[in-house]
């Protein structure tokens, strides 16, 4: 059971259409190593994608490429047929395993992120109030963010991403260091993003979480997507030997 977060007025970004996201021939090469080795991918609106794969497979790097934090050595990414621009950047958000928060109050972290996107005044106050309520952080609004527990910090990171009303939310192991209750709280916020119309791309090693949050599984191995399957089909029996080994907890060589 997911701990469903209250919905409030969470909406999804207006503005430019960003889907389909199309990646072609993505490569990341450094020091003679191919960390991402020729990835083609198409993502449509409201998809629920989970990326699985062993440590070092390139899952985080793929998210960072799609989010624009890392530039590919080769290949290209287009959003509804055009390269990433300000409209695209304002429609996507990323949440990391370790929350990256400002050394300011909880509320100031939300206010700053919204101001950076040009959202000010009454609209900003409303979104901050909604985000605090949704993440159940309103009583901690004035606290320094660095004093929050790990679970609270991750709820704040999610609330900050949701306040931006993204159409596409990237999540890189957002619950990797959280206890079960905090994990469910974060999953509730992911669910809230989806109810608001966001597509999600989630990297996780938690198979239960993958089942709860995927319609589609991308299974990565050695910088490649070796399997791209409907979630039900993947969990019923991966097509790839590497996927089978991963699900069975075996080491694939
Ligand atoms: N900025 C970088 N410079 C050099 N190598 C990097 C960089 N970022 C990642 N790598 C390497 O690329 C490979 C893939 O890393 P990545 O973090 O994408 O793996 P992952 O699948 O997310 O693994 P995990 O499940 O352990 O988080 C690893 O071998 C890693 O050491």
Write the layout of secondary structure elements.
Elements: E1 21-30, E2 33-43, E3 48-52, H1 59-67, E4 74-79, H2 86-89, E5 92-95, H3 106-116, H4 121-134, H5 150-163, E6 168-172, H6 180-195, E7 199-203, H7 207-213, E8 216-221, E9 224-230, H8 231-236, H9 241-247
Parallel strand pairs: 3-7, 3-8, 5-6, 6-7
Antiparallel strand pairs: 1-2, 1-4, 8-9
Helix pairs in contact: 3-4, 3-5, 4-5, 5-6
The structure holds adenosine-5'-triphosphate (ATP).
Q: Enumerate the spans where pLDDT stays under 50 for 5 or more consecutive residues.
A: 1-9
Element order, helices and strands? EEEHEHEHHHEHEHEEHH
Strand tally is 9
* Straight-line N-to-C gap: 36 Å
Q: Shape from CA axes?
A: globular
Q: What's the main sheet like?
A: 6 strands, mixed
Radius of gyration using CA atoms only: 18 Å
- How does the helix and strand content classify structurally? alpha/beta
Helix content: 25-40%
InterPro entries: AAA+_ATPase, ABC_SmlMolc_Importer, ABC_transporter-like_ATP-bd, ABC_transporter-like_CS, P-loop_NTPase
GO molecular function, one term: ATP binding
Keywords: ATP-binding, Nucleotide-binding, Transport
Protein name: ATP-binding cassette domain-containing protein
Descriptive keywords:
binds adenosine-5'-triphosphate; 35% helix; 3-stranded antiparallel sheet; 6-stranded mixed sheet; alpha/beta; 253 residues
Short note summarizing the structure:
By secondary structure, this protein is an alpha/beta fold.
């Amino acid at each position: 059971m997911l701990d469903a977060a209250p919905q409030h007025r969470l909406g999804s970004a207006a503005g430019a259409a960003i889907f389909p996201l199309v990646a072609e021939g993505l490569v990341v090469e450094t020091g003679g190593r191919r960390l991402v080795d020729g990835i083609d991918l198409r993502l449509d609106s409201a998809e629920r994608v989970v990326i699985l794969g062993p440590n070092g497979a390139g899952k985080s790097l793929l998210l960072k490429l799609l989010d624009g934090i890392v530039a590919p050595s080769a290949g290209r990414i287009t959003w509804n047929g055009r390269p990433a621009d300000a409209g695209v950047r304002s429609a996507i958000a990323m949440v990391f395993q370790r929350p990256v928060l400002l050394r300011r109050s909880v509320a100031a972290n939300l206010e700053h992120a919204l101001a950076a996107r040009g959202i000010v005044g009454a609209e900003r106050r409303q979104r901050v109030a909604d985000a605090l309520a949704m993440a159940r952080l309103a009583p901690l609004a004035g606290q320094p963010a660095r004093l929050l527990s790990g679970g609270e910090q991750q709820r704040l990171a999610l609330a900050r991403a949701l306040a931006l009303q993204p159409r596409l939310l990237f999540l890189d192991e957002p619950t990797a260091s959280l206890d079960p209750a905090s994990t469910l709280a974060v999953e509730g916020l992911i669910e809230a993003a989806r109810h608001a119309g966001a597509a999600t791309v989630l990297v996780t090693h938690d198979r239960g979480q993958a089942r709860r949050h995927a319609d589609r599984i991308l299974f990565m191995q050695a910088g490649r997507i070796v399997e791209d399957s409907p979630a039900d089909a993947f969990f019923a029996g991966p097509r790839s030997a590497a996927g089978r080994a991963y699900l069975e907890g075996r080491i694939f060589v």
